[in-house]
Amino acid sequence: MRWCVFCGSSPGNDPRFVEYATVTGTALAENGHELVYGGGRTGLMGAVADGAIAAGGRVIGIIPQQLDEREVAHRGISDLRVVGSMHERKALMAELSGGFIALPGGFGTFEEYCEAVTWVQLGIHRKPCILANLDGYYDPLVAQFDHGRKAGFISPANREIVQVVTSLDALLAVVSRNTTTERILP
Ligand code: AMP
Fold it and tell me: 186 in a domain, yes or no?
């Protein structure tokens, strides 16, 4: 299976998050999965790619021309695809991947993850959307999703599209058992 990983282009302040990204990349490769990601070499993005590469995995990086020109692309990955726009990038990421994992990150990560969830909501695809709430990083975002459900803006069924794992072990368990490309939604 191919997993698309969204995560910070920054390393964050806590070095554990870089370590988690590296371990996630390694686990994907060791379980025979391919990594699809944004193609960057910095922060958690670079770490997840480096982890997969070091374990002999195939990595597909998809980067818009504009970012490639700023030399943020990872030159060590097997398959770097330069596309015309952010929209093309996200469409290709979704097309190539059987599921999505959001590791800690910032606005870019939030936006990419929420778009994947929205596409399930709209019936564009039915691919699993895993939110890796490592060390409670996403507690406020999960609380916001629950707030949206209670306020009637997110239906209970759509709230279930967000599949939260709360530890690295739980994330690795998903990665090691998941060979299907889609989950059965309620
Ligand atoms: P952020 O969480 O704001 O750091 O954004 C990270 C997400 O946005 C990644 O999953 C990428 O797809 C995209 N992105 C943001 N900045 C970069 C960058 N410098 N290089 C490549 N992709 C980036």
Answer: no
